[in-house]
Amino acid sequence: MSTVHEILCKLSLEGDHSTPPSAYGSVKAYTNFDAERDALNIETAIKTKGVDEVTIVNILTNRSNAQRQDIAFAYQRRTKKELASALKSALSGHLETVILGLLKTPAQYDASELKASMKVNAWTGNRRGLSH
């Protein structure tokens, strides 16, 4: 009986909670983070003939949202242009959509997705994202 209790304790709220909740997320802060270096690398990637999409994706997908906000701020300070605008001009299609989504704060992203889902399709009369 004692073994069952021990197992249930580990699986329940009564178990060991020494790991902080922030450790459970899938996106971790990049340990060697340098916003200025990342902003410079993204600027170089944008200016590269044909745009170095791999560098842009590797940097932005391996940083936390707070770090991406710092990169955007460093980019604007360095170039006097908004990072989102520069990326919008350099990228296209689904990659553009994903990268621009990554640059938003969680609240901004949620708001834009809610707004987009409520737009009525002029052709069908249906709302985007809703099936009728």
Assigned CATH class of the domain at 32-111: Mainly Alpha
Q: So how many helices?
A: 7
Question: Biggest sheet, in brief?
Answer: none
* Helix content class: 55-70%
| Poorly predicted runs of 5 or more residues | none
Write the CATH homologous superfamily of the domain at 32-111: Annexin
- Termini separation (Å)? 53 Å
| Mean pLDDT across all amino acids | 84
- What is the molecular shape? flat
CATH-derived topology of the domain at 32-111 = Annexin V, domain 1
Q: How does this model look, in words?
A:
By secondary structure, the protein is mainly alpha-helical. It has a domain at 32-111: Annexin (Annexin V, domain 1, Orthogonal Bundle). Helix content is 58%, strand content 0%. It is flat.
Top keywords for this entry?
132 residues, mainly alpha, Annexin V, domain 1, 7 helices, 58% helix, ANX2, calcium-dependent phospholipid binding, calcium, extracellular matrix, basement membrane
Brief characterization of the structure:
With 132 residues, this protein is an all-alpha fold.
Q: Topology, pairings included?
A:
Layout: H1 2-11, H2 35-47, H3 53-61, H4 65-79, H5 83-90, H6 93-102, H7 106-117
